[in-house]
Amino acid sequence: MPEFRPRIVAFLCNWCSYAGADLAGTTRLKHRADVRVIRVPCSGRVDPSFILKAFERGADGVLIGGCHPGDCHYVKGNLNARRRFLVVRDLLGFLGVEPERFQVAWCSAAEGAKWAGLVNDVCEQVAKLGPLQGFKALAGATAGEEKEIEPSAE
Amino acid sequence: VPSDAQAVDSQAVLRQKAKDLLAAAEVKLVLGYGESYLGGAVRPLFVESADAAERLVWNQACAQNLATYLTREPCLGVLRSGGRVAIVAKGCDVRSIMGLVQEKQIKREAVHIIGMVCEGVKVAERGEVVVPSKCAECDVHNPVGADEVVGAKSATKPGAEDRKSEARRIGEMTEAERWQYWTGVLSRCIKCYACRQACPLCYCKECITEKSRPQWIDRSSGTRGNLAYHFIRAIHLAGRCVGCEECRRACPMGIPVDILSRYLTKKVEEAYGYKPGMDPKAEPFFVVSKPDDPEDFIR
To answer: What is chain B's mean pLDDT, rounded?
Structure first.
């Protein structure tokens, strides 16, 4: 049986974690390729509905990367996000989603190595849990699934 | 539970106060409870003249949280034109009003709060008349922050915390059991949005549930869409919900809607020491973030 490869959706802040992930690449650090990165202007941009949508559409885990407190490009976007994510984490847990599936990290533009380690660790934890079956089972319960939008060929 | 005589006394005092306020033109409208066409039940009553104040009632059936109407017509029209509104409010309802003041939906001075000492109400749940658990764990039998208080001071202490144990029971389940519980319960939801309409703090004119570009929440009442709706609703009420249980009371499908938002508000209180609706000057939970907020879950 082939090894289970989880699908992790990562929302990364443009100013730090995204650059950190970039740095990991330019320094040729190897890490697991199970992460799909979505660049956002700030971790404060990540609405709880993004996280929910990711799970609904088949993510096995969600990882959020933001600036260390005090480093936010928008002064306190990450601090606002921190309050929000604490609530999201509690709610996911209360609904029955394992806490390892939703992770938040502060990762600066200089922390390429931290990013690589983080990805490996999160992927491993989620892989151990296996696929997130709950939301997938629910998907059938709704009629008229929205069509995936194909990128236009320009 | 108060004696009927006490409630009758309070009702007489309430009527007189409403009459005085309207006669002195201190308020344009008194929002209270009136007798319903159904025996024993009450309905919201909008009193605009001193003569009509006689129709106000006060008894144990007065469970509804009238604060919901402060952000809707006809109160909205009165408040917008600079008039004042008086509202009959139990201790728990006062907390919702304070929540609205905190979030700058209404001005504190535009509302005259007639606080009612309340020993607990009675509501119909699954065909039975019960005392809601919010009354069992109530710590505001004597309203806090009202303009005036009607009724003899209550000495009742908060009792067993029923709803908390309900949340604890769910907390003690395994993750798979919890998931099964919630998807089972929420599969009953018919997306009538009664919980949203009944909620005093769900005042957005445009709700995300009605947004379709992009569509964040499935419109149909399949379990997935239901879960998304209740997920977002719980998040929106985290640290804001005062636990008035109107959502639960409004639900035609018997879903304990209040558990999620009350659980999250409890968590917010544990983490940040913030309890909504206690201080009209306190800034709402999501508005302030501090450098030293807890972050033990962040790596």
So the answer is: 89
pLDDT in tens, B165-223: 788 888 889 999 999 999 999 999 999 999 999 999 999 988 998 888 888 888 888 88
Are B122 and B61 in contact, with CB atoms under 8 Å apart? yes
* DSSP annotation of A146: P
Contact of B291 with chain A, judged by CB distance below 8 Å, is answered with yes
Q: What are the distances in angstroms from CA B59 to CA B10, B123, B179, B261? A: 9, 12, 40, 28
What ipTM describes this predicted complex? 0.89
- Which regions of A19-149 does DSSP assign to beta strands (E)? 35-40, 61-66, 102-106
A96:B175 CB<8 A: yes
At A8, give phi and psi (nearest 5°).
Answer: -110, 130
As given in the structure block, the two tokens for residue B4 are 């009927």
Q: Count Cβ–Cβ pairs < 8 Å, chain A vs chain B.
A: 118
Q: Looking at the partner chain, which of B171, B220, B299 has a beta carbon nearest the beta carbon of A118?
A: B299
* Whether A98 and B178 lie within 8 Å, measured CB to CB: no
- Across the strands, what pairs with B135? none
Partner residue opposite B179 with nearest CB, options A85, A95, A139: A95
Compute the distance between CA of residue B45 and CA of residue B84 in angstroms, rounded to an integer.
16
Å between B159 CA and nearest CA of chain A = 25
State both tokens at B217: 């929440």
